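Batch 3, record 17
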Amino acid sequence: MTTSEDQRAPLADGGPSSPSAEPADGRPLVSVRGVTKRFGADTDAVTALSDVSLDVPDGAFWSLIGPSGCGKSTLLRVMGDLIAPTEGSVTVGGRSAAEARKARDYGMVFQKPTLFNWRTVRRNVELPLEVLGMPKEQRRERAMAMLELVELGEFGNKRPAQLSGGMQQRVAIARALSFEPSLLLMDEPFGALDEITRERMNDELLRIWQRLKTTVVFVTHSIPEAVFLSSHIVVMSPRPGRVLREIDVDLPHPRDESTRESARYFELVTEVRETLREAQQL
Amino acid sequence: MTTTTAPPAAPVATIRRRSGAQSAFMRIGPAVATALLVLIAWELVVRGFGIRPIFLPTPSAIATTFVAELPRLLLAVWTTGRAALLGFVVGGVAGFVVGALAARWQWMREGLLPMGVAFGAIPIVATAPIFNLWFSSLSVWSNASVVALVVFFPMLVNTITGLSSTDTAHDELMESLAAPRHMVFTKLMVPTSLPFVFGALRVGAALAVIAAVVADFFGGFRSSAGFFIKTLMATADYTGAWATVAALCLFGLALYGSVALAERTLTPWGDDG
Ligand SMILES: Nc1ncnc2c1ncn2[C@@H]1O[C@H](COP(=O)(O)OP(=O)(O)OP(=O)(O)O)[C@@H](O)[C@H]1O
Ligand SMILES: [Mg+2]
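Prediction for the assembled complex:
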C-alpha cells in the first residue's frame, strides 16, 4: 500500500559492485554507490565506511550486521540523509537522499524509542502527520489505526513513561509507519530488549512488514534476529566498514516459531556467524 | 458493611485523581505543619522570655493587628503587588522572547548568556533609584521596571538553556521528518524548555515581591507596602510593620503557588516519574 509508486524512476542496473540478486520485486529502491565516510580532520580522521555499495530492492527487508563500531549506524544515517557521505552517493527511488528526506520518504526508528514524554502515546504517533499538515480528525484516526497495528490500541492516552521499553519501541514503530514512508530505517530497535520480548517484537515486525510491504533496512547485532527477519543480510567488516558478504535468506513466509526451529534457519545462522568470525580475524 | 477503598474496577482517572490529591497533600502537609510549629514556638518563646514587642511581637499580636488593619494592608499589598505582578509578567515575557531569539541565532546566544548571568547578579537596590529617575516616581512602571529587570535575567538564561537542551535523538527525529524550523521550535524546543522556564518563573515569583518592596523604599507610592513599613517603624508601630511583612508573605506565597499550579497543569508529564 505504500511503496512502488509509478513516479519512482527505475534505476539503471549493474552498478559498480554486487547488484545483489534479489528475487522479490526486482528494481532497487535504495541505491548506495561507493559511499565512504570519514569523521574528523585529515590527520586523526576516522574512516567509518569505505566504498560501500548496495542496492536494496523495493519491498525487501535488509539487515546490516557487523561488529560494534563497524559503521552500521553511520551507513543508516547516510542513507537517511542525517549525515553526508565524504564520497559517494545515495539515491532513493531515483532521488538524492536529501530530496527523499524532504519528500518524507523515510521512517526512522532509533535504538532508543525517542518518544516525546510531554505527549500522550497517540499524539506521539501523530507527530509526523502534524508535520505533514494532516487535518486533526484524520490524524487521530490514522494514529489509532497504527496503534492497533502494533497492538497498543488501548494505550493511546497513556504517557510514554507509563509503558515498558518494548511497548515504547512499538510506539516508535507505529510513529515511523504512520505516514507510510517508502523506506523504514531501523537502528537496532530491539537492542535493549530481553531475548523473548525481542522474538515477540520480531514476529510482530515481520507481520507488519508483510502487510504493509514497506522496504526496510534494519541494523542489528543479533544473528538470529537478522536471519529471522530478513530477505537479505549484509555482513560488514570491522572498521573501516566495508561490505564483506551478502547473504540471501530463502526462508519461506510466513515465518513463525517453526521457522526458528527449521534446519535451514540454523544453517543460515551458522553461515552468518562464520562470516562474522572471519571478519573479526581480518 | 462500609468500605472506603475504591472498587477494583474503578476507572483509572479516578484513581489517578485521588493519588494526585494525596500527593499534593503530602507535599503541602509537611510545609504547613512546620509553619504551624514555628509559629507556636515563636509565640511560646516570646511569652516565656518576656521579649518586648519592639524586638519581636507575638504571632497572635501580629495576627490581631493584621485583622484590624486589613483594609490598609490590602491597599499596601495591592500597590506593591501590582508593580510586582506587572514586572513579573513583563520581565518573564521579555526574558522568554529574547531567550527564544537567542536560541535561534548562535552569536546572540553566545553573547547574551554570559551577560545574562552577569546582569542577574546586579543588586536591585542599585537600579531602583535610576528607574525612579527615568520614570516618574509616581508611575507604577518605575517599580515594575525594577521587578522586570530582576525577573528578566533568570528567565533569559533558563530559556536559552531550556530551548537548547533538546535530546540529540529528538533533533534527528525532527530532521528525518524534514520538519520546518517553526515546527521544531513549537513541537520540540518549547516543550523541552518548559521545566526550565517554570524554574525561572518560580525563582522570579519570589524575587518579584522582594524587588517590589525594595523599590518601594526608594520613593513611589505612599500607599505602598515598603513605604508603609517605613512609616510604621518611624512611629514605633512594630507590630503593624510585622503585619505588613506577613501580608507581603501571603502575597508572595500566592504568586508562587499560582506558578506551581500552572506548572503542574502545563507539564503533567513531570509527575509520571
Ligand atoms: N559523529 C561522529 N564523529 C566521529 N566519529 C564518529 C561519529 N559517529 C561515528 N563515529 C565513528 O565511526 C565508527 C562507526 O560508528 P557507528 O556508530 O556507525 O558504528 P556501529 O556499527 O553502529 O556500532 P554499534 O554496533 O556499536 O552501534 C566508530 O568508530 C565511531 O567512533
Ligand atoms: Mg550503531
